[in-house]
Amino acid sequence: MLRQWFHQLPELHETGSIQTASRLLSVIWSRIGELERRNRDLEHHPALARAVTWLFRHYADPGGISELAARAGVSTSHLNLLFRRQFGIGPQRYLNELRLSRARQLLANPYWSIAEVAGKSGFPDPNYFSRKFRALYRQTPQECRRTLLSSGWVDHNPEKPGKAGSGGG
User: Fold this and answer.
1) What angle do CA 55, 144, 119 make, to 5 degrees?
2) Is 163 helix (H, G, I), strand (E, B) or coil?
3) Any idea where the HTH araC/xylS-type domain is (predicted)?
């Protein structure tokens, strides 16, 4: 869904055509409407809302779907059913795609290595991260970073290694 048009943004940015920009805005507008409908649907499923909220806040934390189900107050099988009904995919795939989406954003920070981006995204194994990233986006994290940096999609407020959580020293 959103990952498809997000994946196309660098390409659309490079073409610079009015028609392409118009098409992009149309897609974004329809996606926003779709997200609003899904958010309204979440109000009817408090367990699913709790699970999704927790995932967005703790996507990089280790832990399995059974822990997520316990936090949501439902069984693993019921959580799986809720995710499939709402999103068309299971909770593990949802989590992986959320992590990969965040990783794609983090790749715009030129100070972090691919391994650091993987770790910050919830993938302790950079090789596994690279395989999953390539499977979803059809390019390696390195290729994605080059595309982002060359097309101006740079993190303009990058956190340099060793600065975060250093206590000012």
Assistant:
1) 40
2) coil
3) 49-147
Question: Rounded to whole angstroms, what are the CA distances from 40 to 35, 36, 139?
Answer: 9, 6, 34
Q: In whole angstroms, what is the distance from residue 75 CA to residue 81 CA?
A: 10
Q: Which two tokens stand for residue 95?
A: 């989590």
pLDDT in tens, 133-168: 999 999 999 999 999 888 876 665 556 555 444 333
Nearest to 154 by CA among 114, 105, 116, 115: 105
| pTM score of the predicted model | 0.68
**Amino acid (1-letter code) at residue 154:** V
| Dihedrals phi, psi of 36, to nearest 5 degrees | -65, -40
